[in-house]
Structures are given as C-alpha cells and as structure tokens.
C-alpha cells in the first residue's frame, strides 16, 4: 500500500536568492514557514522549481540543511537528487540522507542516451544505495524520456519505488497509471505536478499534488485537498478555477520562456506579496522587470491578493 506520509499537498519549494545570488536564508525561512502554517502536508526540495540544475553541490547542501532545520520534523521533506547519471544521483542521495530528509526524488538519466533497461537499472541502483523512500520524477520535457507506466508499477510492486511525481503533461498516461496502480492495491504514491489540473487528478485517485504555485498562495491547495477528501467535488472544481486564473502569472510575461517565465513569475509574485526580498534568478537567467512585473501584479490584483 502507498505510504501515508506522502499524501496531500507537497509544494516544490522556490529558492530565494539575494541580489548577489546567494541563498536568502531569511526569505527562505519565511516562505517555508508560511506554507507549513497554511497546512501543507510536505515539501519537495531541489526539484525544477528549486533551481536544482542551477545549483552547485555546496548550494544543494545549503538548501537541504536550511529546509531540514526550519521544518524540524513538522512535515515530510522530499529531496531531489537529479543529475545526469546514476553515480552522481547516488552521491546526492547519500548527502540528502545524511542531512535527514524523508525521501528522495530521481529522474531518468539524461544527456547520455538511455533506454528502458538503463532507466530501470538507474532506479534500482539508487534504491539499493540509500535507505530512503524513492520517488520517480517523470519530466520528459527536461530529460527527453517518458517513464513507462508499466515499469513504474513494476518497480512499485517490487518495493523499489515508493511513488511517482508526474510532470509529464501526459494526462492520458497519468490516468492509465492511476488505474493500474489502483488495480494492484496502490503500491505507489502518485502525485501530480500540474497546478491547473489537480481537480482531475484527485478525481482519478491521485495521492496528492506538487504545485509550484503554492509558493505564491498555498491555502487554496490545502482547502482543495480537504474538499477532495470530503468528496465535495464542486468545491474542488471551484478552487481549481480560481487557481487556474492565478496561474496566469506564468503566461503574462513577454520576451521570456521556460524557467525564466515560470519560476521567474513565482519569484516575482512572491516578492510583490512580501514573502521574499528579491526576484533574483540564477545565472544565466534574467529576472523579470518592468512591464512584466506590472502584468503579474495585475493578475495578483484580479485574484484578490493585491489591492
């Protein structure tokens, strides 16, 4: 059966930076405590939203140590161990275990071309190397490989994987995985990483969500989870409509794409709401400025978060 520790809302944490691109510890503490106070059920650190691929080993350690210290056991912490190949992922996993996280999250290997056999071996090697629950991170837009649902289920049934964090954009494949998992007694915790379709994921039986937008406004995601547990699907859908409108902060910026638009918008909104001190981005990504900030402020105002 799925691990009950990893159910509910697990925001992927934004990493606030100072103007000099150092870790802004004060802002980070404020953001983490704000989400925990809102009732989130866990945190996912060092994923895409956390700037994992922009971070040196030292920065990764600094982020993890800060999160584990601030959280202090109040909610489970999942740590990304994302890297190009297995040996590097195992190194990150051992560091994360030594710091005291509750679980780890790994992608398929990337850069060097890998097939299904290598992907399966990668997860098995990581599982054998550390004594922590292991989640597979399905994000083909970044690693250029879709994780096969039958492989994920097989590894879940064998105890290699504890769960899946799905950011594949493949809603049909996600639903198939939910159905296969249910038929086998739910060996996997299956979490959706798509902020604007959480209602459908819950209706299909997902165990939770990993919404980056919860860094900006966590409360509705917690309320939505509670409504889903109560079977109040009208409320679930109504909250999702509100959150879909708020998610427009990521599409109104002009002249930027990808990480700069998505996480850049989260950071900008958090700065405008007084959660973090700057919207600084890691090199080589430029932070949002000028009319893009005005556009994000407009969405925040329309969502009743700014006057």
TrEMBL record:
<dbReference type="GO" id="GO:0008747">
    <property type="term" value="F:N-acetylneuraminate lyase activity"/>
</dbReference>
<keyword id="KW-0456">Lyase</keyword>
<dbReference type="InterPro" id="IPR020625">
    <property type="entry name" value="Schiff_base-form_aldolases_AS"/>
</dbReference>
<dbReference type="InterPro" id="IPR002220">
    <property type="entry name" value="DapA-like"/>
</dbReference>
<comment type="similarity">
    <text>Belongs to the DapA family.</text>
</comment>
<dbReference type="GO" id="GO:0047448">
    <property type="term" value="F:5-dehydro-4-deoxyglucarate dehydratase activity"/>
</dbReference>
<dbReference type="InterPro" id="IPR013785">
    <property type="entry name" value="Aldolase_TIM"/>
</dbReference>
<dbReference type="GO" id="GO:0008840">
    <property type="term" value="F:4-hydroxy-tetrahydrodipicolinate synthase activity"/>
</dbReference>
<dbReference type="Pfam" id="PF00701">
    <property type="entry name" value="DHDPS"/>
</dbReference>
<protein>
    <submittedName>
        <fullName>Dihydrodipicolinate synthase family protein</fullName>
        <ecNumber>4.1.3.3</ecNumber>
        <ecNumber>4.2.1.41</ecNumber>
        <ecNumber>4.3.3.7</ecNumber>
    </submittedName>
</protein>
<keyword id="KW-0704">Schiff base</keyword>
